[in-house]
Amino acid sequence: MKNTPLFSKGQRIAIVLLLFLIVAIWLADSLIAHFASLPKAHHEEALIFQAELDSFSAQIKPFHKTNYQHQATSIYVDWDAYPTQYQLHPFDPNKADSATLADLGLSVRVIRNILRYREKGGYFNHADKLGEIYGMQAEKFAELKPYIVIEPRPTSPKVLAEKTSNKKDTVLELNSADTTELQYIRGIGSYYAKQIVRYRQQLGGYYKVEQLREIMELEDSAYTAMAKHFTVDTTQIQRIKVNMASVERLKRHPYIDFYAARSIYETRRNAFQLNGISELSDKDGLPADVLEKLRPYLSFEQREMKKYNR
To answer: All domains of the chain, ordered by start, with CATH?
Structure first.
């Protein structure tokens, strides 16, 4: 008789699955038992960490656009605002630094204007001068005025020389005197000394003392008093070579504008070269009075003819 298997194919599969489930349940039970037996200290540390994390999160405020705008405007500086808390005390506006001026309750703009005024050579000769500073409020100046103490201005060697050097024997050559020497003459300070030298360079030199009136506003009496202290050496004048000068070179002279320079250039080009100032008469931009002023500054050297080898 043929032997038959004890279990069918389906029964065998069911048995295998049952055994697999038994093993899986056993492993799961072992793992749960292992992790459940972790030291109590680890569990406490986890709780402490979680509590610190919750506390930190509670302290963080949500970001709002309005908060950002408030922070941005909080650093804005109003230059024209006058401090409400300050202390009045005697001060010299010619010496007080920015911190001292701020302690007196002045605005940032006024402090800046005071310092700029001094940097440019300005000096407060009297208390009312401070009230003229741009941005100074009339009420604030009235409050400060009783505390303004102006010390006498120190006399520098240049200022002393300017006050005492108007002697009959002080004579300078106008085309060679430097800015320091020019300040020896009464009425000429640092500013006008620089202007005289700058204009001399633009002209190419002075040919008469009266040309100083072109840069200095002088009354007749003041000019007469000043003129006797100068001589003029016309040999030091740097003349323009008309037959070789460009339009750019010509118009750099104070007496020659663009139209006069172009007229001189065109006249020279048409004639190839000029022999004298009379050839410029009646030209555009060159009236008689301008030509007379230009006479000492123009020279008419002949152009050299280039030789070509044949």
So the answer is: 80-153 (1.10.150), 157-236 (no CATH), 240-299 (1.10.150)
